[in-house]
Structures are given as structure tokens and as C-alpha cells.
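Researcher: Please generate the 3D structure of the following complex. Treat every line as part of one assembly.
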Amino acid sequence: MNGHTALTLEDWGLREDGLDVARLAQTESLFAACNGHIGVRGNLDEGEPHALPGTYLNSFYEVRPLPYAEGGYGYPEAGQTVVNVIDAKPIRLLVDDEPFDLRYGHTASHQRRLDIRAGTLGRSTEWTSPGRRSVRVRSTRLVSLVQRAMLAIEWEVEVLDAAARVVVQSELVANEEIPSTTHDPRVAAVLRNPLRVLENEHTNATLFMLAETATSALRVATMAHHLWEGPEGTEFRSDSFGETARASWITTLEPGQTLKVVKLVAYGWSRRRSIPALRDQVSAALLAAEHTGWEGMLAEQAAFLEDYWDLAAVDIEGDDHLQRAVRFSMFHVLQSGARSEGRGIPAKGLTGPGYDGHKFWDTETFVLPVLTYTMPEAAGDALMWRHRILPAARERAAQLGLRGAAFPWRTIGGAECSAYWPAGTAAFHIAADIADAATRYVAASGDVDWERKYAVDILVETARLWVSLGYFAPGDGFRIDGVTGPDEYSAVADNNVFTNLMARRNLLAAADVVARHPGVRPDVLPDEVTTWRRAAEEMAVPFDARLGVHPQAEGFTDHAAFDFASMTADDYPLLLHVPYFDLYRKRVVKQADLVLALHLCGDQFSDEEKAADFAYYEPLTVRDSSLSATTQGIVAAETGYLDLAYRYTREAALMDVDDLERNTRDGLHMASLAGAWLVPVAGFGGMRDHGGRLSFKPRLPAPLRSLGFSLLWRGRRLRVEVNHHSATYSLHAVERRSSLDGVRPGGTDPIDSLSLLHYGEEVTVGVGEHHRLPIPDIVERSGVSQPEGRGPMERLP
Amino acid sequence: MNGHTALTLEDWGLREDGLDVARLAQTESLFAACNGHIGVRGNLDEGEPHALPGTYLNSFYEVRPLPYAEGGYGYPEAGQTVVNVIDAKPIRLLVDDEPFDLRYGHTASHQRRLDIRAGTLGRSTEWTSPGRRSVRVRSTRLVSLVQRAMLAIEWEVEVLDAAARVVVQSELVANEEIPSTTHDPRVAAVLRNPLRVLENEHTNATLFMLAETATSALRVATMAHHLWEGPEGTEFRSDSFGETARASWITTLEPGQTLKVVKLVAYGWSRRRSIPALRDQVSAALLAAEHTGWEGMLAEQAAFLEDYWDLAAVDIEGDDHLQRAVRFSMFHVLQSGARSEGRGIPAKGLTGPGYDGHKFWDTETFVLPVLTYTMPEAAGDALMWRHRILPAARERAAQLGLRGAAFPWRTIGGAECSAYWPAGTAAFHIAADIADAATRYVAASGDVDWERKYAVDILVETARLWVSLGYFAPGDGFRIDGVTGPDEYSAVADNNVFTNLMARRNLLAAADVVARHPGVRPDVLPDEVTTWRRAAEEMAVPFDARLGVHPQAEGFTDHAAFDFASMTADDYPLLLHVPYFDLYRKRVVKQADLVLALHLCGDQFSDEEKAADFAYYEPLTVRDSSLSATTQGIVAAETGYLDLAYRYTREAALMDVDDLERNTRDGLHMASLAGAWLVPVAGFGGMRDHGGRLSFKPRLPAPLRSLGFSLLWRGRRLRVEVNHHSATYSLHAVERRSSLDGVRPGGTDPIDSLSLLHYGEEVTVGVGEHHRLPIPDIVERSGVSQPEGRGPMERLP
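Model: Done. Output below.
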């Protein structure tokens, strides 16, 4: 590549100057355009160079074998892997005889820009071919947040200096070659050509392709329509063959002349709908988009985002870079969930094939708390997916000899796909994480109807799981043995504190919701509810009186110290260099576990316990998971380590922009991006929502002058403005718009005021009111340390 | 098949009347002829019908991939699988136009008989072909215990009733079709045709074939020479092609006439020796056997066994069936180890492909104690193999971040082949089991030279492992966390009592041996030895004071009860019907673990503790492993449950003859067969050898009138005769014979007497003396129960 390259966070976006081919995989992830339904990696329009071409549809996957050298009962035999579907991005260009490819010729300038207010990816390149013809190529790409099925691209070539003959080819391509990510030849074979093209047609400027996966038998339909403007004499034709459909233009452009193409693409997929039904579906979506037009789509995209930022923006003074990173992060969180509509949100959103495109607990624990307060409709939709997969989860529980629902540790469609049970099946806390997210969503949205339709089932089935998983030990309370908590460097331990506390909350929430909705689940008898409450009450919560801290799980504090001193930077992540057996039996923590309990179940700990526990676990936590910085940051802030919290905020927010874990290539870390909202709000704002009640203990780290954030709460917007001396709480009614009607009022509390706690003191804020309250003196702590070299990460300059 | 079929234990052997094709796989295992170097399954001479053709050479294996859907650091990538080598058993017969095949025509009689004094497998069949020609086929097969490389077969056909034309074909065959035992197509591909034939020749009556495995690059050479007698005019020819070499005879036999063939077969294999060297090796072995002749080989085989039974027989009065089963079991244990010579003893011996032909801890813990006292040379040889693989074990330890040697949980050649680490790598007790076997061997043989050459290294390297694996916990002793004990229904637990007690013994033995052999390991400094002794002294041994029992590992007694009541007979073995996670966290025991500690480390428990512990674990132990009955029987006897012990003896001894676990098809259960010696000797004889000192507490169950057994001890034979009232101890010098010179005198104690304990009282027995001592009254216990349906197994009548 020629010249200087740089990736720059802007106030409202991310800009790349020059093309860094070595960094292409990362920028493809960062520049992904998604809406929760469709995800399109930031591949160049011309297709190549690329690192990993990717177009994904939420929950569109192929089935792959899961091999075991030594199998076991209940091991899943089939996995699910997200597949790159029909690619509609490519618009190739031939300039005289030379393909437009930035690896050849001379690139005078190249810029890409993700605009998070416009919701578009722009691109502008000036390039001189090896044959010395110069062109400027500009494109704007959007995946519509308003019209779920639509990808749209405006693309233009202008000839500079001297006339040139140009050929433009806009394509649909199935089964693009992608680099293999597996060593297993059988799996590679399944994923090499995942699609069978069943229909491939062209009709004037419209291309249509329909394909099916071999084993999962899912069908995807893609229809593209083209509009164009070019000089007189521009010739157009289209054709389709094999796994390609193509529209082509040929013309000669004089200097200053342009050929412009608008490509509107509709995607649809289904397991059940027939070929004609799918064709009609995408054809209808395309017609609607044509009706809106390119300019119309741009406008509605911008309007959607204007509403979003208006309701949800986090404003930070004192660190512009962090301000920008937080906005960038929130944009991608929004993109991951805006239109997921009953299909869940994968760990990487739809930005890359990492983790096989699976959904994990991180969605409920990290991503949904953000969406619950910023775009509640999206949170409710993601949780509806959990309700939808309850039958599979019940079946899995039965297979495991349990009652209720055992949600899969990792899945796309609902079936357990985890092939290593100690860090999969055994991580039952996911049940409580989902229950917690549902409870939070209901509390924040006040959506009683949703609660009756979805939350009751989710809570009942998970409560049943806990009662069948644990047991009443004579004299020892309700024990939950042999499970794995969030920390994956410990596994299969007894009475994991996080799990037990979350299970307690789950059981109580289930008991409450059944009482609130009598008759919804007539199969739940009073005795069962009594047992839930008793299990919650007697839940075992181990405590190490000798050290005065909570062991993460029974026995943890008795284990040997891990020899951090002998580790070098290259030994991380430890799981690639140390056997599990050695990690499991030593005091080393991959990611916040007990500390996550301090955050999410903070009402179960005293301030002194929090301080002691945080100080105990911080030096043991290596943060080999991107989920951890957020939690460590929030609890650091609560326990007074404000500078540390500040640095964790930056790590969470810059995880992907700075590629801190060197795997952004596979997709963005949605949970970490969510942390860019969570640490400011829950750390520096001190926001908690225990028991469905909002409370705050605002406290800013020295570098920040002020912080402002908003929470949507039952049809109102609570704005919190914090500086070093005071916090101001204001309540606003929300004007509801068709493009964002996710804020559903409900519940029985008065709509015109909100009662909250500020440092434990009750404050009632009426709509239109501003309450300014002083912030008490914070006892700042310092001196806690992390394992050598595992402090908050910053990109090396 | 026609007529009645039966399998009958004889006084000195096993007889089959009629051929039960459905049971063929089991009888192929039971009738296997082995010497520890070569193993030949009891396939019929004519090759078919067969269940599983099998000819194995100790440590001859192919490498196979070990696939993981989710891999991990330190997971072995390649496994080793025993392969069926060149088959030299087939002698086919054509009678007129009909192949001799018992599935067709009429079998008037068929008998096979394993004679454990002759060391031969006899066979006699009268068969009428579909074309109504009747023949009698007789054969005798032996794998020489004296000439390690040799298999020999005498085969004869006699025509009955009417003359018939017969064709006899004696073959060497490579790559026989065998039923696939894997679902993994890559593994199946590797094992489908494991041999590449490099040489295949015939020269008159001699056939020669040499083949190589593709990946492990091992070469096997087989040479067969034939002698024959037939009527005048018998025509002979030989040929070789593809993967077959063949000697053929054609003749017409009048009624009463016979054609007799003696086939002498030499096997040799090597990774390093050249083709000419291997050819010479088998040629020389064959020449020696020809020199001995068939009758000579029969005679030396019988002499070897006469010596063996004379020195080692266990005599039981009161249960003839048990007497026979014990002898049968001892014969197979002898066959597994007699000539293993530096290559170890697999779990199935060389009787079948079960467990991939791997060697496990069961050899050291169950098989070697028998051989140590009945054929010590074989025990020493098996342990030399452990010394030989020390470099691989040291490398594995380093890979795992440990010091010393981490012996593989399962292997053929020395590399770890376990693909499920919680029940593989984590089962570190194998190190102490090997150390214990080496210590026992040295104590019993008195072989100081062997101790210096082999035991020192084994003990030093395993002691180092323990010190690096455990740690000194302030105020909590020396802890060994996160390991798996013998019970595979628990895993990765802290302070497994069996492991810790065995590790303590290991550490002390290492410290002692280093002191006895100064200078052998100059790398061991005094400080290190001090640490070993301190770790041993401070070893954590958890005890549950509330229940008054030892938890198998920390936390075990706190776990939930397993719901045995809801299990049916079809739910066993549980591992095929219950997920590991559920087994691990509940009180259910696959096989003796703490109870094995009560036996092997009995000097570390009081009688009261033994009684309480046994009564606690017996109702939790499902015995899904064939290793368990032996231990439960021994400890049942010690704690006074004599009837229960008696029934466990029968289970252990009849495991394979009655196919109690329905998997004898894959090979015999060597450890269980060893139990047929161990329960009488250690259970009813009460023999213990703690600290290298023999002690006895004889006690017979009601059905037995008397018990006699012998122990070889530093060049003497101690004979113990027990009845209900007294025990008689006599000491004999052993006349050493060239065929059995494994009894190596040594050590410093006087050669002409032996000091032992009888019920705690010291008795010194001189050579030629008989000491008769009364047996105190035994407090018999009863009433302990097993999980429903999991009492000692008996074959259904």
C-alpha cells in the first residue's frame, strides 16, 4: 500500500485514511454495516483485496459435525456455524484493461468513513491504474435500520485526467472462497461450499438468487435491483450462471464524467417458506425500498439515528477520545440489536464469523442492560428469542436429567453447540442471566403484557431448573454443586457465589411473577413456589472467614497461588499456554466472577465486603476475556478506585478500535462495546437497578469534567448529568415515533414522576423537573494491582 | 448352529462344546493364546466364521488422529491404536467343492479346549459338508511361553465315511477386514488397511511377509514354515501375491486317512531394524523352533507351566467352580505378562483390541501385585517399560508445567493418548501407582541391582512430580488440588485421599531409595529430599468429622445423593446414560477409590475408620468398572463382610467366563482376572505388604473349607494354608530352573527364614518349617448394601 494509513475516531464516526492491507480483517469488522437482521462486513466494493468476505443473516447457519476422540453421554453431536450467504456487495470495475484493485497501480488517496449519525459507510478513492488511467470511486453503503431486509449501495466512478473505457459489474455471488478456520477436514468440507444455488436469474436490471444449505436446509433469497446514470451510449446487460448473477455496464467516460449505480438489495430467509413465497418476500421488500428511493432511505436512516442519539447519548467532557469511542461502541451495540426481532444477538453481532456466530450469556448480561435503557424494544425482542427456544431448552434439561429449561451455552438456533462441557453445559448460570435480563426488561419497560406472555415462562422454567440442579443439604442450606461460573479458568466447582446469588434472584422473581399472573401457568402449584422461596432463602453462599472474603466457589481460596511471575506477555491468553487442569486448581481468574456478583448482586454484599473482595480478586484476574474490563471497571468505581475504573472504561471502549485482543478480525466484541456504556453509567454514574428500582452514586474520575447519560424508563427519559460536585436528575416525556416505538409504557406506577435513590436518599423527579443533588466526598482508593502486565490495556503508541 | 452349545470351566481349563456363533467374539477372547509378546485370538483355524480376527504384537500400533471439536492446550493430537498384524492362523480346507465352514453343512460335534497345564488350545470338529462328505478336523495351537517369537499349530484333517478330495491352504494374510469400531471416518480410514506389505515371498514350504504401518512406521516380519504328512500323491505348492502368502496341499483321502500339517510361525517387529535384519531375526527364531520340533515345543510349554503351577497355585476347597475360575484367571494373567519383556502389559493383555490396546494404571495396581508374588521376573520386566518411557513422561510433565515425570494415563508406546483430560491427564495417581509397584517389586524380589538401575529413577521422577503438583498451604498441610482419583464418576477434585496417601508413600519411598543408593542421582540434593519428607509428613488427608468418615476428596460428602432409585438395570453403566456433570457432583462412585485406599494404604487407617468408611461407600458404589469388585471384596473381607467378599471373588473371577460386563468380546479384563488371585490372597488370606513386610489375617467365608496359596519372596516360596480354625505357614527354597529364573535372591535379610505377621503377631518361619497358628474369632458383619441392583454380579442361569 502506498502512503500513510491511519484509523481515526471522529466525533460521530470512524475514519480510515489510506488502506492498510495488513489490517483489512480488523477494518472489515469495524466498518460492518448491520441492523441485527443483516450484517455486511466492511469489504471493499470491488471485492478484493479482502481478508474475510462476509454477509450474514441472523440465525442463518449450517450444521457441522462435532467430533470427539472420547465422547460422553449428552455431548452434542452437531454444531451450528454461521455461513457467509449470497454476497451482494461486489461492484467491480475495469478501467481500460485493468481491474480496479488497490494492490496494484497507485492509490493517490483512499478514505473510508463510518458515519454513526447518518448510519452509512462512505468510501472515496483516487486511483491510477498500472496503465496510467486515473479514476475516483465513491460509494455509500447502508444496511437499513428502518427497512429490515434492505442493503443499499450508491456507487460512482469518475474518470480523472484522461478518458477511459470502464466496465462496471454488480454481482450476487454464492460460495465465495473464504479462509478455512478449522483443522478438521470434515468440518472444512461442510463449510467450504455451504450453499446450493437453486435459482439464479436476471431480468433487466434485477438479479435474483436463491440458495439452500445442505444439512440445516435453510433457504436464502436475495434480489437486487439497479438504478443508474451514465453518459449517453452506456450499454447495460445482465446475466446469471453458476453461482453468480451479474449486471454490467460498459461506457467510455471523459474526464469529469461519472457512471453512478444505486444497488438496492433485499434479503430473506426461511426454513419453512416455499421458493415462490421467499421470492415474493424479497421482491416485496425491494419494491418498498424502490418506493422509498435511495435518498429516502438515507433520510429515514438519519432520522432513526437522530431519535436514537437524542434519547440515548452519553456525553463525556474531559476525554474526547473516550467520548468518541463510547459513541462508536453504542452505535455497534445498536446495530447488533436494532432489528434482531426474535432471533437473538450473537457475541460478535453480525460483524464476523467469530465464535461460529453463536449467542452466549454475554448478550443478556452485558448487551441487553444497555439496550433495555436505550432501545428497550430491541432488548424485549432479543429476549423473546429465548422464549422461542424454550422447547429446545426443556428438551435439553430432560436429556440432562433435570427439570425446567437448560438454555444452551452457545447456539445459533437453540440447540446446545458447546463441545467442552466443563465450560459449556456446566455453566448453568446462563439460566439466571436470562431470567435477570427478562426481569430487568419488565421493570424498565413496565410492559406487563410482555411479562405475562414471555417472562412468566422464562422465569418458571429457569426456577425449575435451579431446584432440580441444587439440593437442600441437611444443615448446609441449598447447595448447587459441580457447576461453572463466569470465570472459565475455574470449572465444575461447588457453590459458585455468582451462580448461587443469581439463582436466588431467579427463584424469587419466578415466585413473584407467578403471583402477579395467576392462571398463566396452572402447572405451577403453591408447593412448588414454596420450594422456590425456600431454596432462595437457604441458598448457600460460602464465605472464607479466615481471609474475610468470599471464595469464588467453595475451596477457591484454599488453592495454590498461580505463578504469575513466570509468565511473559506471550503466555497470554493463558488458555493457549497452560493446561486447563493447572488453571482450574489455582488462584487465577480469567474474568470477573465473584466481582461480577459484586456488581449484579450488589445488594447482597456490604460495602466492606465489596472492598475486601475486590481487593482480593483484582490481583488474580488476568482478563483473558473481553467481558471482564467492564465489570472490573464498575466495581473499581464503586470501591473507590476511580482512576483504575477510568482506565478500564478506555479498555472496554477501545477493545476493537485498538484491536487490544488482536482478534477483532473475527468480529467485534459486542459485550465489551456494551461496556463502553456500562462503565460510565454504572461505574461513574453508580447506577444500579436492584429490585427494579433505579439508584445512583455518581462519582467522576479526575480526568472527566462531566458525564451525562439517559435511561428510558417506562415511557420517560431520565437524564443524569454529573460533575465532580453534583448530579442533576431530570425527567422527560418521550415523544413516540413510528421508527422507534420501543418504549412501551405500562405498569401501575404514575407516569409523570420517577422515584430514585441518590446515595441512598430517595428522590422523586417529576416530568419536566430537574433535581440537582450534591455528591458526597468520595474516599478514593489506590494501590490495588493486577497480575504483572495485566493492568488495563492501552494500545501501544 | 446345530445342537447344544456350552462353555464349561474344567479343573485345568475351559471347554466349549458346540459352536455358539453369537458368542464367537467372547470365546475368541477367552481362547486367546498369548505370551505377553504375541497374542492370538481364538479365531477358528479356517478363518471364518469369525467375530474379530486378531493377532497382536505387544506395542505394535498405528497412530490415529484425536479430533476435538473444542481443543485445549496440552491435548494430545495423536492417539495410538493396536492393529491386527499379519495373520498366520488361517488353515483353510476345501472338501470336494465345499469350503469347511461351520455355518454350512452339518456339525456333528465341535469342541474347543484351552488346557492351562499344557498351554495349548485344542480343537476337534466332525463336520459333514452340504455335499455330504464327512471330515474330522483337529488342531492344537500354542503361543510359546518359552520361545517368545513363536506361534505353532498342529492341524489335521481325516476323512470319514467316504473318500474325498481335500485342498488345504495355510496362509499369511495382511489387512484382514475387521469390523470398524469408530464413527470417525478419518480414524476408520487409518485403521482400515493399517499395513503396507513390503515383502511377500514363498520358498517351498516357507512363507515370508514383511509389512509396515503408514504413520508409526513400525515394521512387522512373519515367517512360517510347514511340515506335513499325507498319503502318497499329495501335491504341494506355495505362492504369494498381494497381501497373501499361501502354502497349499491337494490330495484325495480315503476314509481313515489323514493329512497333517505343522505350521511354525515366527514374529518379529521393530521400528529401527532394517528389512534384512528383521528377516534374519524371524528366520533364526524359526530355525530354533524347527530344531525344537512340535513335540519339543509342547513339552517345554508344559514344563514351563508345571513350574508355574507348582510355585503359584491357589487351592480352594468348597467351591470347585471358583477354584477353576481362579486357575483360569491366573493362566491369562500369566499369559499377559510372561514375556512382555520391557513393553508393558495392556489392560486387555493381547486378547483383543479393547481400549485401543492401551496400558493403564490397572497393570501396576492389580496385575503386577499378582505377578510380583507368582512370577516376579514378569513384574520386573513390565516395570522396566515404565523406566523406558521416562523420557516421554518427563517431556509430558514439562509440557504441563510440572517437574519430574507425568506418566501417560493411557498409551501403547509412551505418549499420552487420553483425549478427555478430566479422566486422563488429571488422574495423576498413576505416578504413585507405578512407584508403589516398583517398591513392592523390589521388596518382594530383593533385587537391589534392579532397584539401583530402575527404581531410583522412577521414584525420584514421580516424587518430583508430586512436589510440583501439590503445594504447602499455610496452616492446611500439603494439598494436591484439582486431580482425579480412581473413581471416574468424580473428577478434578481437591485432596483425593487415595491420591494423597499414595503420593505420601511415593515421596517417602523416593527419599529412602535415594539414601540407599547414594550417587545414583547426583542431581537430587539434600534439600529436595527434605522437601519430599516434609510434603509426605504434612500431606492433607481430609476427614468429615460430622459423618465420621473420610470424604473421597474434599467436598464429596457434602454432595447430593444420587437418585439410585430411579435407575433401571438398563441405565448401567451410568456413563452411557447420565452426563458427567451430574455424576461428578453427586454421591455416586464408579469404582473403589477411598476403599482402594483402605486396601493399599491400610496402614494409614484404624480398624474403626475402615469399617465406617467401607459402610459409607459400599451403598454408593455402582461398580461400573471391572476393577472394583476385587477391592470391594478385599476390604469387605477385612471389615468382616465375609459372605459379601466371597461373592465379589466370584464376580472378579467370572467376569470374562460369564461375560458379566458384556464386553469380553473386546478382550479379557486383566485386572479383574488378577482379582481372582487378589481377593483370596489379600481378602481371605488377609495378606498385606505395607512397608515391604508380609502380614496375614486369614479368615474364610463359610462356603470355603480351605484355602492355600503361595508367595515367592526373595528366592523362597511361602506357602499359606488356611482353614476356619488355623493357618499354616511354610517356607521352601525354590529350585531355580532356566525357564523360570525370575526369582532373584538379593537384599540383606537372611535367605533361610522369613519373618511375617499373623494377626499382628510376629512369626519367623525357617526354610522347611511349618508354623500352624490359630485364627481368632472373626466378628462377621452383614447388612451393608449396594445401590439397587448393583450387588455382586452372578451370571443369570
